[in-house]
């Protein structure tokens, strides 16, 4: 559906203004699509992002700084998110063997199992295949990269 129909407005200052509104609207649409899938697993998008980063590091630990660098949402409080994952029993936190001032975070078996279950169900990107060809998806990705400069 066209943006104008979705938001019941076509009052844009320029094509660039309309594009910005469309990017923000689409972000909300994609976020809601993803959040529905996460409810079943009782994790947030930020928690899922950290779990995936930790799985990529596994069996090596990660630091809070590494997690912050790699997170999709740079404004997230990685320390607080890790604390919630520790409380859920999905990651372990311990003092670094290399630097006693640092804390190492590592995904545990329960966290790996959760991600394995989620991987089988988290196929929302396949929904895009219905609407975009591989070439169009590649073009859109390139345009978004270009937009960020």
Would you give an account of this structure?
The protein has helices at 3-7, 15-39, 45-57, 64-70, 78-87, 109-121, 125-131, 134-148; strands spanning 91-95, 103-107. It has two domains: 1-39; 43-148, Winged helix-like DNA-binding domain superfamily/Winged helix DNA-binding domain (Arc Repressor Mutant, subunit A). Strand 1 (91-95) and strand 2 form a beta hairpin. By secondary structure, it is mostly helical. The mean pLDDT is 91. It has eight helices and two strands. Helix 3 (45-57) packs across helix 5 (78-87). The radius of gyration is 19 Å and the shape is elongated. Strands 1-2 form a two-stranded antiparallel sheet.
Q: CATH superfamily name of the largest domain? A: Winged helix-like DNA-binding domain superfamily/Winged helix DNA-binding domain
Q: Strands of the biggest beta sheet: in what spatial order?
A: 1-2
Straight-line N-to-C gap: 28 Å
Approximate strand percentage: 5-15%
Structural class: mainly alpha
Percentage of residues assigned to helices: 55-70%
CATH class of the largest domain: Mainly Alpha
Shape: elongated
pLDDT < 50 stretches: none
Supply the key terms.
7% strand, mainly alpha, elongated, 64% helix, 8 helices, 149 residues, Arc Repressor Mutant, subunit A, two-stranded antiparallel ribbon
